[in-house]
Amino acid sequence: MGKWKVVATTVTFGKINKEPLERLVANDCEVMTNPFGRPFTKEEFLHFASDADALIVGNDKVTADIIKHCPKLKVIAKHGVGVDGIDAQAAYAQGIAVTYAPGTNAEEVADLAFGFMIMIARGLYQANADTKADHWIKPTGISFYQKTLGIVGLGTIGTATAKRAKGFGMNLLGYDLQENPAAAALGVHYTSLEKVLAESDYISLHLPLNDGTRNLINAEKIALMKDGAVLVNTARSQLVDYEALTAGLKEGKIRGYATDVYDYEPPNHLPLFDLPNVLLTPHLGGTTIESNLRMGNTAVANVLAVLQGSAPPNPVLLR
């Protein structure tokens, strides 16, 4: 039995790459990995993690009530970037460190965002299905060259998306509360959200979820968009008002919508999912063999630092 108990609730930890798990074991940790293939429920947290010294979490909801029932807990490490599912305020109030793994999957998520745009623009998902069914139908798509990409949120992932768009000869508009010099250096022109939506042929969402961004893309914002705009969401599902989005897709206001993110995982089936101009993937954007290793090693470095009495390299800062 190890000196410290670490519960890794994220589905992929220790499965795609063994190295992060082996590092924990080599440092006197007893490790439990996720046996369910999905995020933990509250009851499972309370059953398996109530005596844990550390948690490595994915898209689980780590609430104040769960934290309260983990008296030995010293650190909650996000196996990824977005920490909106962790009640960091409650954790810090209990003296528990909260960490994340910045930049470890940014390139991969940007790859998916741009891949989504290509698939919708050229109708590749339908063309694939038609050709396999022996229907020789050539869809007429839309181009990227000299078109405008609007990037809503220009952190690491949004900036990586801009880098890809530049290679396609696109014009770049961006919206964020703070300007990122790296994005500006790529030729991103910062402007208002309204102008980004009104002037962009493609729109890619990369904002965190908070009270200010929830349902940001609502009926009013969709009405501002160009007719036939393409909307891609690899950030958080609740940035978009699904009712307004569904109406926009049915009316043809939005050419297509692609998402990798959902309110729940696996998601409840929505009418939106049945539309032919909607492309869905199972939150795989940040998951490749290489990015999984980076995320795992960063999460482990954060956990071991705290357990061994040091400050973690990547703390989550409260606003």
TrEMBL record:
D-isomer specific 2-hydroxyacid dehydrogenase catalytic domain segment(s): 15-316
Any single GO CC term annotated in Swiss-Prot or TrEMBL for this entry: cytosol
A Pfam family per the record: 2-Hacid_dh
Organism: Sporolactobacillus nakayamae
CDD domains on file: PGDH_like_2
GO molecular-function term, one example from the UniProt record: NAD binding
Designated name of the protein: D-3-phosphoglycerate dehydrogenase
Similarity field: Belongs to the D-isomer specific 2-hydroxyacid dehydrogenase family.
SUPFAM superfamilies: Formate/glycerate dehydrogenase catalytic domain-like, NAD(P)-binding Rossmann-fold domains
Any GO BP: L-serine biosynthetic process
Gene3D superfamilies in UniProt: NAD(P)-binding Rossmann-like Domain
Keyword NAD: yes
Keyword Lyase: no
All residue ranges annotated as the D-isomer specific 2-hydroxyacid dehydrogenase NAD-binding domain in the record: 115-285
UniProt KW keywords: NAD, Oxidoreductase
